[in-house]
Design a protein that fits this description.
The protein has 169 residues and is of the alpha+beta class. 25% of the residues lie in helices and 33% in strands. Strands 4-3-2-1-5 form a five-stranded antiparallel beta sheet. A hairpin with a 3-residue loop joins strand 2 and strand 3. It is globular. The termini are far apart. 23% of the residues are buried.
Length: 169
């Protein structure tokens, strides 16, 4: 690869708007990428302006899980450990090859949720499975939540009434 250019033919890339594909050819005028079994030609300047991410050198998926506040007593202790165990077990069966690291940790308290961050880092040889691996991780999270009875937080709308406002309850 040229030091000024982010990819070569054969590399797997992701682009904005969830576009994902394999670079077919690179020239000073056009970059051709196979996206969803179709070759798309991008003028080189346009391609570069999209800031493509080259997945062939390795990539990561960061998934945030928002837990309901009812899980506060275990959100920093048992939930991350049990979720990590479930991911380790599931990824071994459904996509653990090329997994470099897996970190599951409490991240933050939000207004309506307690957030856990999953950071899965893969080698570049798993780049063709980039989309699939994210779905696998998200599916394993849902399965673990169902198994352990963990409730995923939903956004809530809170209505504040001014003092003295009539209630329609």
């Amino acid at each position: 690869a040229e030091p000024w250019f982010p990819c070569v033919a054969g590399d797997w890339i992701s682009l904005p708007d969830d576009q994902f594909g394999q670079v077919d050819s690179v020239s000073p005028d056009f970059v051709e990428v196979v996206i969803d079994h179709s070759v798309r030609a991008f003028p080189t300047a346009d391609f570069l302006s999209m800031a493509p991410a080259n997945l062939s050198g390795g990539f990561r998926h960061v998934v945030r899980v928002t837990f309901d506040y009812m899980h506060q007593p275990e959100i920093t202790t048992s939930i991350p450990h049990r979720l990590r165990d479930a991911l380790d077990e599931g990824l071994e069966v459904k996509g653990g090859d090329g997994l470099v690291s897996l970190v599951v940790e409490y991240e933050a308290a939000q207004a309506n949720s307690l957030d856990v961050r999953i950071d899965a880092q893969y080698t570049g040889d798993r780049a063709p499975d980039w989309r699939v691996l994210r779905r696998v991780i998200e599916g394993l999270v849902v399965d673990a939540c169902n198994t352990h009875g963990w409730e995923i937080a939903l956004p809530q709308l809170v209505v504040h009434r001014p003092p003295g406002a009539a209630s329609s309850d």
